[in-house]
Amino acid sequence: MRKERCRNILMKRRVRVECYCRRSSNYDIERKVRILHKLIPNCESSMGLERLFRETADYVLALEMRVKVMQILVNELSA
């Protein structure tokens, strides 16, 4: 009887910990998506994840191109 009671208590604690971990994980993901929405210019908050990731990839490519252009300008002007 006592052994079964201890087992039930442990199971309840495990379930609580697992729920907390899942909730915490979901919260972290949602927080990161909100931050990403803020970082991407002209990004609507109602945008779906797939479109958000596409917009993010396009924005990163645009930034890379800007850096390359600036590197070329610096090399040409310093020569």
Automatic annotation (TrEMBL):
- Span of the secretion signal? none
Give the UniProt subcellular location, in the record's own words.
Answer: Nucleus
Keyword set includes Iron? no
One Gene Ontology cellular component annotation held by this UniProt entry: nucleus
Which InterPro entries does the record match to this protein? bHLH_AtIBH1-like, IBH1-like
Keyword tags: Nucleus, Transcription, Transcription regulation
Please indicate which superkingdom the organism of origin belongs to. Eukaryota
Q: Does the keyword Protein biosynthesis apply?
A: no
Alphabetically, which GO biological process terms does the record hold?
Answer: regulation of DNA-templated transcription
Q: What is its main location?
A: nucleus
Indicate what this protein is called per its UniProt record: Transcription factor upbeat1
Source organism = Nicotiana attenuata (Coyote tobacco)
* Originating gene: UPB1_1
